[in-house]
Design brief:
310 residues, single chain, two-stranded antiparallel ribbon, 2 domains, alpha/beta, Rossmann fold
Length: 310
């Protein structure tokens, strides 16, 4: 599981809040807290010594709290004079042999939502390590509140049934915590109604098999659902087929919206996605749906790099 976790921090309130949740990550034993020092763009000459001293003092602040949880703590402050910040994060993750990189979303998006900042976006696009993007509810006074008391308590897991995409299922099997999982398959495209119905039936059967397997593990409670995206789309769950209201979303562009809407509907504590599936999870290097959900969702998102798990 995620034995060694690298937490990248810029000392903003979004990244500092991550420390409150680190102990909830399954299997965590070692925490490496990283601050990447960036040269002032207006400075002609940069001597990072003073900045490193300040960063070192800030990095030391959560040491006692993490060690009280039984976690091993290490702090690193790394200058980035000639490298982009995301490149430094990737290098340190490699040097530390990190199982997971954790970052906070801090850019503001539409409707006062939280989009990724530029550094987190680059790590998402170009990084090779499993990535957890933390998000919080912003209350009126600007402070941050956890979306759910426990990060892994209610997981939304979109499934595309590819070998790479199934790495998320294998991950769930190894979580030694009492969790609730909602499996979701989105049927986004078909040449005819008959084809969509056939694909939906096939997806439901596959989800039922996965559900049965996961439910054999006593700490996992699983529900499953197949949604066809389009006008008056149908939702297939454990209670059979029910008609639900939906807008006209004719093609793959509506998949990420369906995933994010479902996360809100079930009040998911975490969305788990694979970055190397086929179909709607493989429209580009990372997958356009994975990228958009990770960038736009209001919930924490865990991106599993299939190559790192398999």
């Amino acid at each position: 599981m995620f034995k060694k976790v690298l937490v990248a921090t810029d000392f903003s309130k979004h990244s500092e809040k991550i420390i409150d949740c680190v102990g909830e990550i399954p299997g965590v034993k070692d925490v490496v807290l990283l601050n990447v020092l960036k040269q002032d763009e207006l400075a002609r000459v940069w001597s990072p010594g003073d900045d490193q001293k300040k960063a070192r003092d800030e990095l030391a602040k959560p040491k006692s709290a993490l060690e009280a949880l039984g976690l091993n703590f290490k702090a690193r402050e790394e200058p980035s004079a000639s490298s982009a910040e995301y490149e430094v994060i990737e290098r340190v993750a490699n040097e530390e042999n990190a199982d997971l990189v954790v970052m906070g979303a801090r850019g503001r998006g539409l409707l006062k939502g939280i989009l990724l900042g530029s550094v987190s976006t680059k790590v998402l696009q170009r990084g090779t390590h499993n990535l957890l993007i933390m998000r919080y509810t912003i209350v009126d006074d600007g402070s941050l509140v956890k979306i759910c008391p426990l990060l892994f308590s209610k997981i939304l897991c979109p499934v595309d049934f590819s070998p790479a995409g199934m790495t998320t299922i294998n991950l769930l099997k190894n979580i030694d915590l009492p969790i609730n999982v909602h499996l979701l398959s989105v049927i986004a495209k078909g040449e005819s109604v008959a084809e969509i119905e056939a694909r939906t039936k096939d997806a439901k059967e596959k989800l039922d098999a996965i559900k049965t397997d996961l439910m054999s593990r006593v700490k996992i409670n699983v529900t499953s659902e197949v949604v066809t995206v389009g006008a008056g789309y149908r939702s297939y769950g454990s209670g059979g087929m029910t008609q639900t209201k939906g807008g006209s979303i004719p093609d793959i562009g509506g998949v990420e919206g369906t995933i994010m809407a479902k996360a809100e509907e079930i009040d998911a504590s975490l969305i788990v996605l694979s970055s190397a599936g086929k179909g709607y999870l493989d429209a580009s290097t990372i997958g356009s749906v994975v990228f958009d959900v990770a960038r736009k969702a209001s919930r924490p998102v865990l991106v599993i790099r299939a190559a790192k798990i398999s």
